[in-house]
Each structure stands twice: as C-alpha cells, then as structure tokens.
Amino acid sequence: MKVLVVGADGRSHALAWRLKQCESVTELYIAPGNPGSKEIATPVAIGVNDISALCQWAKETKIDLTVVSPEDPLSRGIVDVFKENGLRIFGPTKSCAKLESSKEFSKKIMIEAGVPTPESIVCVGEEETRRVCRERGVPLVLKSDGLAAGKGVVVCKTEDEVSAGIAFLCGELGAQRVLVEECLIGVEASFIVAADGERIVPFPTSHDYKRIYDGNQGPNTGGMGAVSPTRFLSAEQEQFVIDHIVAPVLRRMSERGDRYLGFLYAGLMIPADGKPRVIEFNCRFGDPECQPVMRRVEGDLAQLLTALCDGTELPPLKISPLHSVCIVHAAEHYPATPTKGDVISGIDTAQSIDNVVVFQAGTKEGPSGEILTDGGRVLAVTAIAPSVEDALRTAYEASDKINFRGRQMRRDIGERNG
Description:
By secondary structure, the chain is of the alpha+beta class. It is about 30% helix and about 25% strand. It starts with a strand and ends in a 19-residue tail after the last helix.
C-alpha cells in the first residue's frame, strides 16, 4: 500500500522509520519531513497545516493510508477533510482532538467518564488566575487551556513560581483560559494506545524527562529523553489504565457521537497509593516517547492501523522484549528562543554504532548539503539493548559523536523519573 506520514518532527521520523519496515508498505511518503526522514521516505513539499493541499495530493497519488503525527493539523480538522474526500486516515476528528487542544474540555470528559484525575479550576484571564492561586496556595500546577507545543504547563512550588508562571502563560503564550490544578506528588509514566472507539491496542509503556537540566532542574520542555519500558507501571497498573481510564474515555466520546479513532496518549501520575491519575491526554504519540517505543514495535504497523480504520480483524502487535532509550539533543537557548543555523556533525558516525538510530527533528539542509539546526529539539539518539543500562551506555556513546554549537543534552536519562 501507499502510505503518507504527515509531520516534520522526530516523532514523524520515527513513525516513518517503523512504517518503512512493514511488508505491506510499497511506497512511503512524508509531508514535509526533514533531512533525516528523506532517507527512508519520499518528501512531499506541503506543510502539515496546508490541509486542502495535502488532501488533493493524497487523492491524486492514490494514498491508501495517511498517518498524522503532530497535534496542529488534527486540531484543525485534517481527519474530517480527508474522510469527506473518501481517504483512509488514522487520527481523531477535530471534535475528538479537543481532548488535547482544550484541557478544559479534556477535564470535563474525564470527570463525566469517572476517570481519576487531579482537581482543577478553570480561570479566565490573568486577574482571576492570580486570585484563585492565592486562595488555593502552593504547590499547584498551572496549565494553558490550548495547545502550547509542550510548554503550557508550569509546576509551582513557591509564590514566586506562581507569579512567573502566570506571567508566562497569560503573557508570552497569550493564554485566555488557565487551569489551576492540584499538584500531585509521585512518578510520571506515559501510556499510549491505538484505538477505534471500542478496540484498544496498547503500545509499550514509557516515561520521559521534561526538565531541561540534569537532576530535574530548569524549565519544562517538550521532553529531553525517554525510556521504554517504564519501571513505574506494573502489569496490574497497565490493566487498570485500560479499564478505568482509556476505555471509559472512549465510551464517553462515543456517547457524545464522536467515535475516537487514532493514537491516544495518557500522561499519568502515579502517587504513593499506586493508583494512576491522568494529568493530560494527547491525541497522538508522545515526543520523545515515540522514538524508543517505535524501536520496540515489531510486525506490520501499517496493517494494524488500516484494520482499525476499516473495522476489520486486527493483526497482532509484536513487541520486542529489549529495552530502548532516547537522548534528545536540543539547541542553544531552548526552550526559550532556540538558536538556529548551526552546523551539526557526527550523525553518520553515531549511527554506525550497532543498535543506534538517530531521528532528526529540528533540522534543515544547508546550501552545501550540510545538516543545520532549525528548531528547539534537534535530534533524538536512540539505542536498544537487553538492559536499560546497556541501552543508555550505547546511546550516550553515540551522542558523544555528535556536536553542534550550544548543544544541550541531559546526562541523567534513565536514572530517575523526569
């Protein structure tokens, strides 16, 4: 079949890498892709949010399956447009994608579905947010209601952090509505499934590392590394998440007339009582969790996604028993205003090491074919091995072959929860 991946980030590169290995895939395209993904998929020079152009191209090319990686086109209704034009596409509709694009809506659905989640209050404007924060006291969590590229959550343990967080969300991000949420203490884990409204196919568990600096210090990012499987979820807890979180949300969406088809990511907090709570839903794979998870997925992913789209019998999803890790290389000044245009060296040398794959994200080609930085999170170096310790050792060996000016990289991935 002909398959199109929509996206340009590291998650898109990882999905394309896995789909390239599927026996059912005869032609693989990526729109627009990046310098790394063009090695495995034919690039299509159409932006992820140019939905009408993507749809027209897919019709003319007779694409059999489209897989959407980033959240923006999902929130803008790319799935609705493709379906209206008779095209098979794996992803949630615009109304279903509100589970990610509106934290207020997501919280409402969770409450209606009886899903365990921290208590929160929705505030309109900066003044109301400050008043509610004063009344509740610290610690607390501030969340921008809308999409914020992984930067819309601020954990506040002091009054100064509250003041700075509100200024950032309402000022720099321009958030009109802010959730003031109970701050849970525990460890975080990521649970990602593919679903068709009723059937649920869980992917390997993982956890990521959000803070920019070692020791879980500095501002939140989109993620500086990830490990799969996570040690923070037992098999019993995984089943709890399916039965008491994922399934109830899918049922509630169906009751509203919105069958949920696509990837669903549950960001979990596991406090001391061991009962997972949902701190956020994403309507696509996590990044950087996607990269190590795709290293462990075996079998024909394209056939699985097609069967979910069509309601036909599901092929088995095979998972490698090995451990996989991801080390993110970020640009100078990320997550504030990342520097762009610096030359990257050593990618090929890193990938020459056994069991290493480097997924590109914020990159572009220079005039002479050199690879340049072009975003906040630039590269994701992944490795797979029989133990997490061996995978980390290999990933850091590969990471040390790569260099660009101002590179930021955590050295403690795998040592503690991020």
